[in-house]
Design a protein that fits this description.
alpha/beta; 8 strands; Aspartate Aminotransferase, domain 2; single chain; Aspartate Aminotransferase, domain 1; 240 residues; 9 helices
C-alpha cells in the first residue's frame, strides 16, 4: 500500500489513473486488501478494476467475491470475472461496473462484438448458479468448512500453506521443484490428483503443490487427502 500510494501521488497530473488488481491471486491464495485500496482510490481520485476470476462464487458470506468479503458491495468498482472456475460454466465471462463503462464495452469490446456468443446451455447454467447463490449460502459455507479443515490440519501436520486462511486456493509450499514433482506423483498413486508448480510458473525456490478445495468435497475426502499428504511427507522427510 505504501508503494501504491507513492505511485498515485506521483501521477496526480494524469487525467485518469486506474488501480488494477486481482481479488484473489491464483498462485499464492492471497487476497487483495480491497478496503485499503479503496481508501487510496478515493483519496487520489483513481478508478479500481478488480479481476475476480478466483473469488467469484466463493469469497464472502454468499460468494459475491472480495467486495462482499470487505463489506464494499455497491462501490463503483469495475469487475471482470469468469463463468468458469467456481461457477462451473467452463466458458465465458462478464464485466460489471458503472453504466458508462458497460455501455462503451457493448459498443467497442472486440470479444463482445466479434466473437461467438455463449452457448445457450452455458448461459442458462451460469444464471442458475447465480440463482443458487442468491437463494442460499449453503455452498460457500460448506466450502469454508472444508478450507478450515484442510488448512488447519495441514498446518498442524507441519506443512507450510500459503495465502489467506479463508482462501480455497491452498498452495503447499515445498520450495524444491524436483521434490514437489515427486510428491505430486506419489500422491497420484494414492488417489489424490494434485499438480506441482515450479519455475517459470512461480519464482525460483518457491515450488509448490497448489490444492484447491471445493464445496463438492466431503469432510471425509478432505481428511483423506490430508492423511495422504502426511504419509508421503513422512516418506520424503518433510514432516515427522
Amino acid at each position: 500500500m505504501v508503494d501504491l500510494e507513492k505511485a498515485l501521488a506521483e501521477t496526480q497530473d494524469k487525467r485518469h489513473r486506474m488501480i488494477v488488481t486481482d481479488g484473489v491471486f491464483s498462485m499464492d491464495g492471497d487476497v487483495a486488501p480491497l478496503d485499503k485500496i479503496a481508501v487510496l482510490a478515493e483519496k487520489y481520485d483513481a478508478t479500481v478494476f478488480i479481476d475476480e476470476c478466483h473469488a467469484t462464487g466463493h469469497m464472502g458470506a454468499t460468494g459475491r467475491g472480495t467486495p462482499e468479503l470487505f463489506g464494499m458491495e455497491g462501490k463503483d468498482f469495475i469487475i471482470n470475472s469468469t463463468l468458469g472456475k467456481a461457477l462451473g460454466g467452463a466458458t465465458g465471462g462478464y464485466t460489471s461496473g458503472p453504466k458508462q463503462v458497460v455501455d462503451i464495452l457493448r459498443q467497442r469490446s472486440r470479444p463482445y462484438l466479434f466473437s461467438n456468443s455463449l452457448a445457450p446451455s452455458v448461459a442458462g447454467a451460469s444464471l442458475e448458479v447465480f440463482n443458487i447463490l442468491t437463494a442460499s449460502s449453503e455452498m460457500p459455507e460448506k466450502l469454508q468448512a472444508n478450507v478450515r479443515i484442510f488448512r488447519d490440519s495441514m498446518t498442524a501436520a507441519g506443512f507450510t500453506i500459503s495465502g489467506d486462511p479463508t482462501c480455497p486456493i491452498a498452495p503447499v509450499m515445498l520450495g524444491d521443484a524436483i521434490l514437489s514433482a515427486k510428491m505430486s506423483d506419489e500422491l497420484l498413486k494414492r488417489g489424490v490428483f494434485v499438480v506441482s508448480f515450479s519455475y517459470p510458473v512461480v519464482p525460483k525456490g518457491s515450488a509448490r503443490i497448489r490444492c484447491q478445495l471445493s464445496a463438492s468435497h466431503s469432510e471425509e475426502e478432505v481428511k483423506f487427502v490430508v492423511e495422504q499428504f502426511v504419509e508421503v511427507g513422512r516418506e520424503l522427510g518433510l514432516v515427522k
